[in-house]
Amino acid sequence: MVTILWRYAQEPSASGDLSKFPDADNESLWAADPLKWAVGTGIISGDERGYVNPGNSAVRAELAAVLQRYGEKQDN
Fold it and tell me: Which domain, by its residues, includes 33?
C-alpha cells in the first residue's frame, strides 16, 4: 500500500526510522524506502501494538486512514 503511494509521489527520499517497530526487519528489500518514507512523513505510525505489519494486507479502515494522511500531507 505505501509502495504504491511512494511511487505515486515520485519516489521521494526516505527519512523514517524503522528501528522502533519490532517487525520492521520483516519488510522486503524493495519496500524499505517506501516504508521509511511513510513512517517519516507520518502517513503510517504502526498499530496499537507498535507493529507496522509490512507483509500483511491492509483492511479498509487502515487504507482510509493512510489515504487521508497522505492527502493532508499533500495539502501542506
Answer: 2-75
